[in-house]
Write a structure and sequence with these properties.
- By secondary structure, the protein is of the alpha/beta class.
- It has a single domain (36-56, 65-244), classed as Vaccinia Virus protein VP39 (Rossmann fold).
- 32% of the residues lie in helices and 23% in strands.
- It contains 7 helices and 8 strands.
- It has helices at 14-21, 35-55, 82-87, 99-111, 146-155, 172-183, 201-209, and strands at residues 70-74, 91-96, 117-120, 131-137, 157-168, 214-224, 228-232, 238-244.
- The protein has an 8-stranded mixed beta sheet.
């Protein structure tokens, strides 16, 4: 196994890009079509902050633990994660396959006084660059070639840097919660997920291992009736993986 190189071909699925592009105008509405992402954000940010502090020996009380570091949000949508990364001090680049999302993201960041470099395209858009932190949450289940996508992500992780991914597990629970109930009741826009494209933790870890990065943590994201989405040891519904480059 060696360091990954980015393949020339894009991993963008045009149908997936079009689907999420149609949601762009409503992305920042916490009660709109992206409401589920808004509910996911607090535990996602809690997990990210914990991994950042552990890796770089940060102070949990520091408001800008990523000051002086670069971050890539791959599959950034309209910026729900990119903006908090910028507020944590990072120099952020956000990339998304849907140009409509990039337009909405740039407008929202500008209105909030945040300088974020937004680019339309796939992982090949940043080939040759390097970032201290590479994050791609709830994205890999929408690409055409997960192995090539992970290889592309790994290739832009700087020496000593971190890669964080999250994705639904391919289980009966994820099918029930995200598709049967989530999409069936309109809590998630219909057509968002293809259960057959979900990856198990073992499958995703194997893809990362093939790039030469070292997986250092996996953690679950569960749905609690009383508290919504919470970090958990249970990876049945959704999970995170963190890897580092030595």
């Amino acid at each position: 196994m060696g360091d990954a190189t980015v393949t020339a071909a894009t991993t963008i699925d045009p149908a997936e890009a079009a689907h999420f592009g149609r949601l762009a105008a409503d992305w920042w509405n916490p009660r709109g079509s992206s409401a589920m992402l808004h509910r996911l954000n607090p535990p996602r940010l809690a997990y990210l902050r914990a991994r950042v502090d552990t890796h770089w020996n940060g102070d949990p009380q520091d408001f800008t633990p990523l000051a002086g570091r670069s971050a890539l949000d791959m599959g950034c949508g309209a910026g729900l994660l990119a903006e908090p990364l910028a507020r944590l001090g990072a120099k952020v680049t956000g990339v998304d396959a849907a140009a409509e999302n990039i337009g909405a993201a740039a407008a929202h960041a500008s209105a909030g006084g945040l300088a974020i470099d937004y680019l339309a395209g796939g992982i090949e858009t940043v080939a040759g660059r390097q970032f201290d932190l590479v994050v791609s949450f709830e994205v890999i289940e929408h690409v055409t070639d997960p192995a090539a996508f992970v290889a592309g992500l790994a290739a832009v992780v700087a020496p000593g840097g971190l890669l964080l991914l999250s994705t639904p597990n391919r289980t009966a629970l994820s099918r029930l919660a995200m598709i049967t109930i989530g999409e069936g009741t309109g809590q998630i826009p219909r057509g968002t997920h293809d259960w057959d494209k979900f990856l198990t933790p073992d499958e995703l870890v194997a893809l990362i291992d093939d790039t030469g990065l070292e997986v250092i943590d996996t953690h679950g994201l569960a749905l609690s009736p009383g508290h919504g989405f919470v970090l958990s040891d249970d990876r049945t519904l959704d999970y995170f993986v963190t890897a580092r480059r030595g």
